[in-house]
Write a structure and sequence with these properties.
The protein is α/β, with parallel strands linked by helices. It has seven helices and seven strands, in the order αααβββαβαβαβαβ. The chain folds into two domains: about 50 residues, Orthogonal Bundle (Helicase, Ruva Protein, domain 3); about 120 residues, Dna Topoisomerase Vi A Subunit, Chain: A, domain 2 (3-Layer(aba) Sandwich). The strands form two sheets. The protein has a five-stranded mixed sheet with strand order 4-3-5-6-7. Strands 1-2 form a two-stranded antiparallel ribbon. It starts with a helix and ends with a strand. The model has no long low-confidence stretch (mean pLDDT about 90).
């Protein structure tokens, strides 16, 4: 028996999510359909609310529900230490480890000529403006330990080596080729404690 079109469409949309294969998408679709109406409506409402209210922080470009995120507006954070990450999700991963008290800057990706991503397509100019405007004591390069992440880190070192007192790279507590998003708190803590000096 062929599935009704609305169910097929729901499965197709769920299968587009990262890490969700067709079988998992089908299970999720049936789970949503079997839930009481109010639970399915709450899920739809939460997705809509997140898409309409979450924006990019005007300072760090991470996820925020206001113009400036909680981290950037927190006076207890060290504003002269910036941790540079590729993706807004990386901020929450690092924050969960409780090892960093500075602020962040999200590049919105990594340099990848094969995929047409050049430095001008990332938020590197905004980082340069922050470095120029503030007296930055340290830049911590927390790009992913991939080919693209390493290329981005080297580019940033060349760009900022004469403008920032100290440039470090999170240590190899992170396995090569791994994504920062999937690192556990202990691995991240070791990576931050053992970060290496680039300058």
């Amino acid at each position: 028996m062929k599935l009704p079109q609305p169910i097929l469409q729901l499965i197709e949309e769920l299968a587009k999510l990262p890490g969700v294969g067709r079988k998992t998408a089908k299970r999720l679709a049936f789970s949503i359909l079997l839930k009481p109406e109010e639970e399915s409506a709450a899920l739809a409402k939460a997705i809509t609310a997140a898409k309409t209210t979450i924006r990019s922080c005007q300072v760090c470009h991470g996820f925020s529900d206001s113009e400036i995120c909680q981290i950037c507006s927190d006076p207890r954070r060290m504003n002269d230490v910036i941790c540079v990450v590729e993706d807004p999700r990386n901020i929450f991963t690092i924050e969960n480890s409780n090892v960093f008290q500075g602020v962040y800057h999200v590049l919105q990706g990594a340099i990848s000529p094969l995929h047409g991503i050049s430095p001008d397509k990332l938020r590197i100019n905004e980082l340069a403006q922050r470095v120029e405007k503030n007296n930055i004591r340290e830049l911590i390069l927390s790009t992913n330990p991939t080919l693209e992440g390493e290329a981005t880190a080297h580019y940033l070192v060349d760009l900022f080596k004469d403008k920032v007192k100290k440039i470090t790279r999170i240590a190899r507590g992170m396995p090569a080729g791994a994504d920062l998003e999937f690192a556990d708190s202990n691995t991240l803590a070791r990576a931050f404690e053992g970060r290496t000096d680039y300058t």
